[in-house]
Amino acid sequence: MENKKFSKATDAVWAGEDNPYFKGAVTTPIVNSVAFAYKDLDEWYDVSIGKADGFIYSRNTNPTVASLEEKIRVLEGAEAATAFATGMAAISNTLFTFLKPGKRVVSVKDTYGGTSKLFLDFFPAYQVEVKLCETENHEELEYEIAKGCDLVYLETPTNPTLKIIDIKRIALAAKKIGAVVVVDNTFATPINQNPLDLGADLVLHSATKYLCGHSDAMGGVLAGSRELVKQVFHFREINGASLQADPAYMIARGMKTLELRISRQNESAMKIAKYLNGHSKVSQVFYPGLETHIGHEIAKSQMRGYGGMLSFALDGGYDLVEKFLPSLKLVHLAASLGSVSTLAGPPRTTSHVELTEEQRALLGIPESLIRYSVGIESVDDLLFDIEQALRKI
């Protein structure tokens, strides 16, 4: 059994949880202790400098958080992992670890709004050169990488238009110049895609979304090589964006049903995307599982499933969005995604609320776009709900 490689479904349940717990508990305990005591000063010192395993202070490491980190490490096939208070903490801490004044980063125009804000406003103020390429223009990405950069940041599928980037191709270009490749894998999850297997150096998630899966805890995780994760961990422990034990427990608990949820959401999203793709009141559907999607072949080669996220544009302006969304009955109109319940909203109030209408237009995000995060409800009920709402516009 020691050498057996388990499935994602099994790892989602057991990874990080194979040790006996206090009093024989069968679930990871929530350890809310701030500090951890030692009777032996030499042992305390060895743990403090990382020479021995253990815990010192929960801003640095915590047993409950460590269990979650091990679970994501196994699911992403990484050497190491570390956790953060939020998904944006994972993104910003990772980027600020490697991007100092004078450094150069190459990324794409279609990234999550908070990430875009870092690239558009924060890093230029820190004298970091930022080059944002057309997301699906791999030739432009390769050209800008070849000119020289320190970090390549990718998001695939993208938020909210679900564009696809060939991770293996871009990682190969980055390796030629020694740049670090970071991939936001939030939409795909480790069930559908493993960027490290495709050449990426680091993979991160907003654990608030699919990993947790219940819209009740916030967190972020990063996984990759031991050396690179250690650098980000040190930045995080000093800057204090640490994940606490309670949300770590809730995220890890949610992850036990990750494979079940993602399988259901993959199947439902495909059916809904196909329905919308043939509807007269819908002008565009963005879902990589559709053969008409420009990135379908790439997605097919690097993803095991196409995810539970889709977006679609109504054939009209924002006034149609204002009529359609409130007519939905089986949807929370809320600024999140990846939950057991279906969530929906326009980018102007969800993924790209930080940007102006003009900035969203430059990113190719129409104001009539609706981001639709498929839950685990009956797909027949969701289709009925969408159909009745479309009849009202």
Features:
393 residues; alpha/beta; Aspartate Aminotransferase, domain 1; globular; seven-stranded mixed beta sheet; five-stranded mixed beta sheet; 14% strand
Account of the protein in words:
With 393 residues, the chain is α/β, with parallel strands linked by helices. It has a domain of 133 residues: Aspartate Aminotransferase, domain 1. The strands form 2 sheets. The chain has a 7-stranded mixed sheet with strand order 1-7-6-5-4-2-3, with helices on both faces. Strands 8-9-12-11-10 form a 5-stranded mixed sheet, covered by helices on one side. α5 links the parallel β2 and β3. α1 runs antiparallel to α3, α3 packs parallel to α10 and α4 crosses α9. The model has no long low-confidence stretch (mean pLDDT 94).
SSE layout and pairings?
Blueprint: H1 8-14, H2 41-48, H3 63-76, E1 80-84, H4 87-98, E2 104-108, H5 113-125, E3 129-133, H6 138-146, E4 151-155, H7 167-177, E5 180-184, H8 189-192, E6 202-206, E7 220-224, H9 226-239, H10 245-255, H11 258-277, E8 282-286, H12 296-302, E9 309-314, H13 318-327, E10 332-333, E11 343-345, H14 357-362, E12 369-373, H15 379-390
Parallel strand pairs: 2-3, 2-4, 4-5, 5-6, 10-11
Antiparallel strand pairs: 1-7, 6-7, 8-9, 9-12, 11-12
Helix pairs in contact: 1-3, 3-10, 4-9, 6-7
